[in-house]
Amino acid sequence: MNILAINPGSTSTKTALYSKEGQIFRKSISHDVEELAHFSSIIDQLEYRKDAVLNALKGAEAFSLDQLDAVVGRGGLLKPLHGGVYAVNEVMKEDLRTARYGSHASNLGALIADLIAQMIGARAFIVDPIVVDELCPLARYSGIPEISRKSIFHALNHKATARKAAEQLGKKYNECNLIVAHMGGGTTIGIHVRGQVVDVNNGLDGDGPFSIERAGSLPAGDWMRYVLSHSHDPVALQRMLTGRGGVAAYLGSKDAEQIDTVIQAYLNGQDTSVDLDGRKSLEVMQALSYQISKEICSLSPVVSGQVDAVVLTGGLAHNRRVVEEIRERVAFLAPVMIFPGENELESMAMSVIEALEGREEIREYQV
Hints:
By secondary structure, this protein is an alpha/beta fold. It has two domains: 3-134 and 344-364, ATPase, nucleotide binding domain (Nucleotidyltransferase, domain 5); 155-340, Nucleotidyltransferase, domain 5 (2-Layer Sandwich), CATH 3.30.420. The chain is built from twelve helices and twelve strands. A hairpin with a 2-residue loop joins β2 (12-19) and β3.
């Protein structure tokens, strides 16, 4: 059984081939920012991105498209859904093409998968889209009746990593209480209660702790007064929250490895050629770890402290300094487990294999 997995990002498209035995081929396609600027909207990039995936697959030795059993794309901004495997259908494609629930590069995942699947008469799927919504009723309260808290997070990597953590604990995913922190450009921290993410911060709008490029939850009154006193347009304000907030706003850099190098040089009393303040960089990254730790601990009352493990994942889980500072603050809750990076392509492919073999339900997207 061969599965093609596709994960579109803002300036890249990651793609990989999997069989039941594991990864066969992988390629991360970088897209030129100036070339992308020629498209008036994300959906206009569809054919361009599809062709890029097909060209990348030419590098897979002894492989042809007709060997595929299915194609799976990253799920985009759809209506709130329960987690799982969904067949791509016309209703889903229409919601993505029209950006009914918002515009995001991940909207292209299902559409690219569908185009390639149609070429060979295969089926197309998505798995655990970013709008997975399993919130308990209490988690939806915001304090203002007109505003309800929403579930938009790194559901795919959350779920995949949580299953791996449960396996290492010798349990099934639906038997565990896990607090999972995906730490990257955006950070989402959720509590998984016996297979359901019943509370999590909205990573798309920058809710929760600040991250590499997102502002996080802000003092509401100060933010309101800032908006009223500045003539920013809505797009500029959104960029302050997501894209140009957090570490990027404080230090002018989104490169976590570069920042860590500057911090280490500062601690060693050395100079670097990088135009970053070592002392300031250290304090900002300590504040980031501090806020992530607070968010993790704030979720433990959901299960009255009965937490099986705290799970750290995402790109920043490679950063030993961040991981150790968080571990020091939260280890009293439960064992801390580290799964660096993202396992999204593998998770999508393996979930589809399980679904095609009848071990997981194939869900239908409906209005």
